[in-house]
Amino acid sequence: MNLIDSLGRKIEYVRISVTDRCNLACYYCRVGERVSKLHHDDILRYEEIARLVEIMSAFGVKKVRLTGGEPLVRRDLPELVKMLKSIRGVSTVAITTNGILLGRYLEKLVEAGLDRLNVSLDTLDREKFRKITGVDGLRSVLSALENAKGLFRDPIRINTVVLPENLDEAEDLLLFAKDNGFLLRFIEYMPLSGGTGKFVGMDEVLKILRRRHRVELAPDQTSDGPATLYSVDREQFIGLIAARSHPFCDGCNRVRITSDGKLRLCLFSDLEFDLKLLLRSGTSDEEIAEAISKWVLLKPARHFLANGQRSTTKRGMDAIGG
Q1: Which domain holds residue 190?
Q2: What is the count of structural domains for the chain?
Q3: Is the pLDDT of residue 217 over 70?
């Protein structure tokens, strides 16, 4: 049995936000100090998350990514990783983190069986990092990345949101990834409520890299993510995630669950369904499965930006899950 939307897209991937809290304040993600945070009882418990994943795995969902906010600010996150790894049908458990706390939890994450690690890193310049994130934390991130090399099943992915102030670092980041065996992925800024970033298209990144490198579309695009893969000098691969300039809605295979337990069918749509209410009202697994399968049929064909419109979502990226 598969989880299929009205356009025949098979849902195999769920991104789960475990918290709306973050230890950074990246200006393109949110504005200022957001003090209206969820209370502990408002967010899904680990047992509830595991229950939802077990229900969805029976529908063919096999990849789970834990996000935030910053997921590592949630206490005992490696325990959740261990719980998810024990679920039959789940082939990949991954985390996207800003890396600030990664060094503290690295050993426990490896022991829990984490398959894949994505680290958000927008610059290699310490002062620029501080200006973008509001925190002087670059050294902590780089140290954790150094210690994490070779510990996971797949190469560590470096996620870089392309901004006017880091566009000149495209080649430096490319060489950093090559030297360390990382997979670099450039990501277009996505305008959600609160963020104040300025859009830079992937064509600009390609233009810069092609001044000194041979950058070609990779013949094998079987990556299970949204990135379009390119080979660079036939020595390394990079990924370009161009949700605005080159939307990939037709192949979208994912849904999201927010930290407060809402099933969200598209990043750019406020169409949400309350899973937490079902979980806490005595609803059976079979009834929850039936509800999810019906709600998935309402997944939009394309997001608003792909249709040339502005996003209508009222949540920021930190509230939805990056």
Answers
A1: 13-320
A2: 1
A3: yes
